[in-house]
Amino acid sequence: MKALRSIPLLSLLALTSCGIPATGVVEAGGPASGTFPMTQVYFVENGALVAMPRTTELPGDPEAALQLLMSGPLAGEGRSGGLSTEVPGVPTSMALPPAADEPGNPPSPDAPTVTVKGDAMTIRLPPGMDGLSDTGARQIVCTAAAAYRLTRPSDATITAEVTDGGGRRITASDEGCPER
Q1: What is the pTM of this model?
Q2: How many domains in the chain?
Q3: Of the candidate ranges 86-95, 104-113, 126-135, the one whose mean pLDDT is the lowest
Q4: 20 to 30 A from 140, CA-CA: which of 44, 49, 104, 176?
Q5: Residue 104 placed within a domain
Q6: What is the full DSSP assignment across the chain?
């Protein structure tokens, strides 16, 4: 009977003395990642706004998200393959500017600018981007607010004043944006 009691003790000793030295935490770089940060960009399909995911290098940055919006929908994108936009394009003499937050890139006068104070957002489009429709303003507000919420989640409605390149001002909120 004594021999049967000593078997668990001998097994434990055998397992703990296998010759592998104890080590501390081994640093091996950042966490594993197989996905890219995404942001929602809003386009028009059959007269309604639809959110389309886009990869972004600057998650949470409304200005970077607006640059993705300004580049337009991808060919064949959407349920019917017919997404469109009512956001006026960048004048052909201007190329889409690099994101202002990237190191070494100053803010460009050809890029949209976004400022946020509390739940109020101010969005200014560059000169030449005028003739903004109400639907285009909703695209801009929904896209900028969705990007902003990526890093600052809140249930509060964001109200934005959008000023197009011609000086026309439109006030809208992100209330009712699809997939908010």
Answers
A1: 0.71
A2: 1
A3: 86-95
A4: 104
A5: no
A6: -HHHHHHHHHHHHHHHTSSPPP------SS-------EEEEEEEETTEEEEEEEE-SSTT-HHHHHHHHHT-PPTT-SSSS--B--SPPPPTTSPPPPPTTSTT-PPPTTS-EEEEETTEEEEEPPTT-----HHHHHHHHHHHHHHHHHHS--SSPPEEEEE-TTS-EEEEESTT-TT-
